[in-house]
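Researcher: Here's the sequence for the chain we discussed earlier.
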Amino acid sequence: MKYFCCDYRRREDAEKSGLNGIDYLEVFDDITQLNGERQRTLFVHFIKSLAGSGLSKDNILIEGGERVRNVAVEGEVIIGIGDQDKVLTVKVDRRGDFSLYTFRLVKDVSLPHLPPDGFDPILSAVDFSFKVNCPSDFDCQKVRVCPIPRRREPDINYLAKDYASFRQLMLDRISVLMPQWKNRHAADLGVALVELLAYVGDYLSYEQDAVATEAYLTTARRRVSVRRHVRLMDYFMHDGCNSRVWVHIQVDTKKVELKKSTEKGITKFLTRLAEQPVCIPPDSSTYHQAIALRPEVFELMHDATLFQAHNEMSFYTWGARKCCLPKGATRATLCGNFPDLKVGDIVIFQEILGPRTGKKEDADPTNCHAVCLTEVLAEDEVGEPLTDPLNDQEITEITWSIEDELPFPLCISAETDADHGRQYVEDVSIALGNIVLADHGLTIEKESLGDVPKQKLYWAPTLSGDRCRECLPDPIPTRFRPKLKKKPLTHTAKFNENIPLTSARAAMHWKTEDALPAIYLTTDEDAKEHEWEPKRDLLRSHKDKKEFVVEVEADGTAYLRFGDDQHGMRPATGTRFYAFYRIGNGSEGNIGAEALMHIVTEETAIVKVSNPLPVCNGVDPESMEQVRHSAPSAFRTPQERAVTAVDYAEVAGRHEGVQRAAATFRWTGSWNTVFLTIDRLHGLKVDTTFKESMRKHMERYRMAVHDVKIDEPEFVSLEIEMLVCVQPDYFRSDVKAALLEVFSNRDLPDGRRGVFHPDNFTFGQPVYISHLYKAAQMVAGVASVRITTFQRQDNYSTEAIETGKLTLGRLEIARLDNDPNFPKHGVFRIITEGGK
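Model: Thanks. This is the structure I predict for it:
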């Protein structure tokens, strides 16, 4: 054969002609044969029958070999095997080596280049190996190698980076290749083509520089580039979060069902607009005129049932006057029967009159607080309305979460000062019901994002020396990265309207990093289900998941990035997407109190809309400068696992409401159990609900071989007796009352804590007698103090007085409640002398 060819057609041509030829050759090798007989029988398969061919051993020549040469035919050849008359069986005198041999049919041994009569000269020879059946790690097919010619690369000035230098570079090159072309007129076609290519080169050069700039965190100019860089360091760059607001709605009918959304749209609240009604019909000319004025838009987050009786509710003081709810209060009594109030409802306490003047304009707008009801008692055990037995006034008892405790004293009733006539004023503060939750953002529906483009680009095939290998162009995956027409895209924290609220505070506090874009995609314009969902990234997305990532640029433009069939599904070519999303984000939604005045709904029974509390929980997107500063050190985060006892105590201390924790390892028979002793803030009990919450918190950090048990601390009750000498100008009873207040376990009216407040002591903290002397001496009217008893309750000892401190164990906490109902919780006795 003189050529390397990839498509041999000689066999088909010979089969159609009158000539015969060799099809292929087999070497018979059977491990059951004697070693000397193996690889000595050849089966030569022909294209056509050998009947009448007259072939003999004189027509066979075996050439080649390195170590074993001159292989000859032994005995006569046999034509046919069974009914196969196309096979020639040849026995040779010895087996060959590992080199390549050629089996050739010749007319005569003396004429080795002429085939027998009736045989094709090309198909009269075949290459073979005696060792073809021996085990091998390589493909027996021969590779046709044709070296790729090396091209002479032109000399190129790689410093050319702009239009002028590219133009001059190409003109210089043309002068070398075509010296006869000397026309440099601007209207010349050749010059025009050169300048066009120079323009394209300038643009591509800019793209190269831009890519190099975006390749590093310190030089990147695009927000998306910074976001992707810091994600490699496990830092999430947040895009801000929208704000939420408590909205108070007043109605003029007994009961109103307010839906989150109807067929005509979502219920919305708008900031103050001139000459617009309170209730604006959805999808009306009035609504479109209002939206054209660009108000801030908030949308209802849940369905609500509104009652006329809940518009404003007065407090009941049981006949007392000049009352207030103290700081830290979690209970109150409402005047009237409100059977429709239920657990999970939000109530806002608001001061509406100035306590000193009795006028609305003098009310303190900061004296406003939202609480979530945890218990409502409006009926007695027989189902009758709860009443005051003295005057049969119907009342309702309400309780709210400790998380929503009053942060300030709330005045209920007062007497005005002398300048305003010394008159008694009731309802200085009231309770507002019909409170709903709304968040910032306007919904955009059915925005078409276009179709996924078809495949148009391919990678150039890689050339190799094997010319027979088919080089198919490698398709470049379609890049579909649509952008949203409107901005800024809303990012919102997760909220489930089907789960009752536990506190008003929890509904208004979340981690900005957990906020996700408020968007979903469908492939059907009328579809309602969320076919494609947003994710923070696609690293954990399965290849079959319909998920995408939103990437926001510095100007607020949002782009959508889809998966690659490895991390998230790649959308099919020709798919048309429709986006349903919201716009409005960040601090734009931080509005002041009483800023909302309009509601977009079909309900006509609503007479007033307002937000008693200001909004301040909207967060702007994290800037690139902030990320460059924070991301390099973001890996210095608290340890995310608990191994030692110190680790368990530290991790438990991260739980909200825990002052301090102590951990102890104990062998319980099969494995180690970690006993966590928890000191809760405000001295709260470690109840079943808290234990369950703590177990869920620890599950993320605990080792698989450790069990976790939650324990209460071991409280040590104290017994203290103090002898106080009162100054002559003070009453002994007043000084004693002041001392009992100072040494109490409560929050004092001036904001201080009592000496034995639960949060002043924790595990193993000793009680110093000097602190007690200092606190007593600061009380007005105290001349001198002497502590006569300072010990553990019912454990007589003078050691603490002598050493100046009472030492406690590792898991012990000092307690002194001085509560006559619970004398075992500590006793504090005061003996006063002198004074009046």
